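Please, structure for the following, as tokens.
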Amino acid sequence: MTTTFKTALAAVCLAALPSLAIAEGCGWRHIDETASQCPDGHAYDAQSGSCVKLTTS
């Protein structure tokens, strides 16, 4: 490999790192959501990991 090729490859890899970091952050769910953070009329559902609207019967 030539030095020019290695330098170009390193530059491309370094340029791609921020894009990969941003893409990783887009898939986060509300993992820290708890029952105390649910609005009135909602309850925390542990199975779905989110607040769900309470239904009355």
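Strands lie at 42-45, 50-53. The longest strand covers residues 42-45.
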